[in-house]
Every structure is written in structure tokens, then in C-alpha cells.
């Protein structure tokens, strides 16, 4: 692909874009990749080429119908419409498709003996209060009281001090604080820092099982797939320290 003296592609420098052939089922993929390959961003060009390749192969392999293609478009539109500042249906979709965990495993491979990672999920926020060890992060009087005593260690069993730990869970009804319309601040979440012995401890409530949001298009997809929408009881932890790989579990 020709470039002008400025380093731009010929199309960016005012030249003609790559010539295209009459498009057919067989040649539309290389032609689409060709017309999309005029950027100076090599990574973007590569990602777009692979995306187009796999999307086109999927359509050819499944003999995708116009009605099915349109249903997928409408599904994505519905996902966008239900998104808000505190709800991301696309993250939920990514989780259901197994993509979130796959990307995390690719970007954060764990050494032998390391704690396995999990997805961030759609309900993490950035407004959790920083609390001292022993403090309570719950305001739910209906929940069963829980004391969590934890230690952060490396794979050799040595305590790690100064780790920032982001912690969040649902209330006793199985809802995160951001799911309540009358939310006036964070609840059932906090940030702590491990002490010199790598310890941190906090008071919360015993976690309960809860359904993922199933009132939207992703929930309807689960129904069509005959999948249930329940998650086992759990507490989210995200560990971060400069020089160490982040862990979400």
C-alpha cells in the first residue's frame, strides 16, 4: 500500500482507496480486510482483519439467514438500550459467553499455586470507602453477621503487606447497592489495605445466592438456552499492588 512523504497511506494522502473486485461469498472477506487496512495503527488493522475473518467464517459455516442476522442486530440494540451508569448489559453478555474470563486468563495468567482469577462482573464501582481493618462494610440489618479474617500471601506462602483490596458483595436480598433505585451511597463494599503480616479483616454479612439481572435481553437469552440465572453465594475481592499482577477472585 503506497504512502506519501508524511507517512500516510495513499488514501489518507488524498489518493484512491484500494480497488475492490465485484464482491462474492468467496472474495468478500479479503476485500473487506483490504479496505479496512488503511490505518497506521497496526494493532487495529490486525484486530479488524481477524474479527472480519471469524465473523465471515461464522456466517458462511452456519449459512446465517437474514432473519437471524437481524435478530442479532436487534438483540445488540436491546442490550444498548438497557445499559445505564450502573448497569452494563454488554459486560453481562460477555460473562455469559465466557469471554470475560477468557480475556482475563489471557492477560493475567496464574503461576502454579496461584489463586485462580474470576470476572470483575458488572457491579463493581469506584466509590467504595477506604476502611481500617476490623471495620464494618455493611448497613444491612437483615443480613447474617459475618467476620472475614484474611491473609494475602505469595506463592511461597510469604505475607504481602500494603496490598489494596477492593471488596464487594450483595445485601441479604441478593441485590448490589447499585441495583436499588434509591441508592444514596455505597453499601456492602469497601477498600482495605493489608497490614505488615499481609492480614486484613472486616465485618459484613454472610453472602447469599442471587440471580444475575434477567429482566433484559441477556436474561431472555438464558431462558432460550434453558440456562438458569443463579449465581452461588460469594464475595468479590480485587487485589492490587504496584509491581504485582492484579488479581480478581
TrEMBL record:
<keyword id="KW-0560">Oxidoreductase</keyword>
<dbReference type="InterPro" id="IPR015889">
    <property type="entry name" value="Intradiol_dOase_core"/>
</dbReference>
<dbReference type="GO" id="GO:0018576">
    <property type="term" value="F:catechol 1,2-dioxygenase activity"/>
</dbReference>
<dbReference type="GO" id="GO:0008199">
    <property type="term" value="F:ferric iron binding"/>
</dbReference>
<protein>
    <recommendedName>
        <fullName>Intradiol ring-cleavage dioxygenases domain-containing protein</fullName>
    </recommendedName>
</protein>
<dbReference type="InterPro" id="IPR050770">
    <property type="entry name" value="Intradiol_RC_Dioxygenase"/>
</dbReference>
<feature type="domain" description="Catechol dioxygenase N-terminal">
    <location>
        <begin position="41"/>
        <end position="113"/>
    </location>
</feature>
<dbReference type="Pfam" id="PF00775">
    <property type="entry name" value="Dioxygenase_C"/>
</dbReference>
<dbReference type="Pfam" id="PF04444">
    <property type="entry name" value="Dioxygenase_N"/>
</dbReference>
<keyword id="KW-0408">Iron</keyword>
<keyword id="KW-0223">Dioxygenase</keyword>
<dbReference type="GO" id="GO:0009712">
    <property type="term" value="P:catechol-containing compound metabolic process"/>
</dbReference>
<comment type="similarity">
    <text>Belongs to the intradiol ring-cleavage dioxygenase family.</text>
</comment>
<dbReference type="InterPro" id="IPR007535">
    <property type="entry name" value="Catechol_dOase_N"/>
</dbReference>
<dbReference type="InterPro" id="IPR000627">
    <property type="entry name" value="Intradiol_dOase_C"/>
</dbReference>
<feature type="domain" description="Intradiol ring-cleavage dioxygenases">
    <location>
        <begin position="121"/>
        <end position="249"/>
    </location>
</feature>
<keyword id="KW-0479">Metal-binding</keyword>
Amino acid at each position: 500500500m503506497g504512502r506519501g512523504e508524511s507517512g500516510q497511506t495513499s488514501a489518507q494522502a488524498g489518493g484512491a482507496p484500494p480497488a475492490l473486485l465485484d464482491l462474492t461469498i468467496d472474495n468478500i472477506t479479503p476485500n473487506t480486510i483490504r479496505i479496512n487496512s488503511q490505518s497506521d495503527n497496526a494493532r487495529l488493522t490486525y484486530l479488524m482483519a481477524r474479527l472480519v475473518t471469524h465473523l465471515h467464517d461464522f456466517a458462511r459455516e452456519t449459512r446465517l439467514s437474514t432473519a437471524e442476522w437481524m435478530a442479532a442486530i436487534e438483540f445488540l440494540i436491546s442490550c444498548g438500550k438497557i445499559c445505564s451508569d450502573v448497569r452494563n448489559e454488554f459486560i453481562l453478555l460477555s460473562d455469559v459467553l465466557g469471554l470475560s474470563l477468557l480475556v482475563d486468563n489471557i492477560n493475567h495468567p496464574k503461576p502454579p499455586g496461584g489463586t485462580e482469577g474470576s470476572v470483575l462482573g458488572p457491579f463493581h464501582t469506584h466509590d467504595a470507602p477506604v476502611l481500617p481493618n476490623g471495620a464494618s462494610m455493611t448497613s444491612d440489618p437483615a443480613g447474617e453477621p459475618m467476620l472475614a479474617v484474611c491473609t494475602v500471601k505469595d506463592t511461597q506462602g510469604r505475607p504481602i503487606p500494603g496490598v489494596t483490596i477492593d471488596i464487594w458483595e450483595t445485601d441479604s436480598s441478593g441485590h448490589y447497592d447499585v441495583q436499588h433505585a434509591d441508592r444514596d451511597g455505597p453499601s456492602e463494599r469497601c477498600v482495605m489495605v493489608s497490614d505488615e503480616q499481609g492480614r486484613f479483616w472486616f465485618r459484613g454479612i454472610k453472602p447469599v445466592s442471587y440471580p444475575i439481572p434477567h429482566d433484559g435481553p441477556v436474561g431472555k437469552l438464558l431462558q432460550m438456552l434453558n440456562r438458569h440465572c443463579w449465581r452461588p453465594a460469594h464475595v468479590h475481592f480485587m487485589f492490587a499492588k504496584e509491581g504485582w499482577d492484579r488479581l480478581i477472585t
